[in-house]
Amino acid sequence: MSADQKLSELGYVLPEPPAPGGNYVSAKIVGGLVFLSGVISIDKQGVMAGTVGHDRSIEEGYTAARQCALMQVAVLKQALGSLDRIKQIVSVNGYVNAVAGFPDSPKVINGASDLFVEVFGDSGRHVRAAIGVSALPRNAIVEIQMTVEI
Questions:
Q1: Which of 2, 108, 109, 111 has the fewest CB atoms within 10 Å, counting from its CB?
Q2: Is the pLDDT of residue 37 over 90?
Q3: What confidence score (pLDDT) does residue 1 get?
């Protein structure tokens, strides 16, 4: 089953990829790798903002990470023309807007990791970092940056 079919079967609709917010590109292909700039947590209402451990829960962070993952899939589709070109997700760097000392950033970033495995199966398994930070652009809950092999 193709990734597009799997997304449809799971009931996901890809969002419109954002334009870069500065002097950079959303995706850069180098050899057989696609490097993706970070995307922040955005849903239909706008930026999913807040700080996990203060005004946002781990569950809300998990949902925000899933939204970032969907956005990255949309960026990949735009850059590649077809998700069928994806061989595997190589790495994911997840940043969580969290209170100082927050120990559960991996639980939040699991939202992105789980979505990639749902959509791409074993090819969605990746290496990753899950890092708590003191601020993200537009006060977003999560930002995800990644590398994909094509």
A1: 2
A2: yes
A3: 82
CB contact burial 17-54 (16+ within 10 A = b; e otherwise): beeeeeeeebbeeeeeebbbbbbbbbeeeebbbbbbbe
Tens of pLDDT, residue by residue over 38-69, are 999 999 999 999 999 999 999 999 999 999 99
Q: Can you tell me the distance from the alpha carbon of 144 to that of 93, in angstroms, rounded to the nearest whole number?
A: 6
Tell me the two tokens of residue 43.
Answer: 């849903």
Over residues 85-118, the pLDDT tens digits come to 999 999 999 999 999 999 999 999 999 999 999 9
Q: How many residues belong to the chain?
A: 150
C-alpha closest to that of 119 among 75, 79, 86: 86
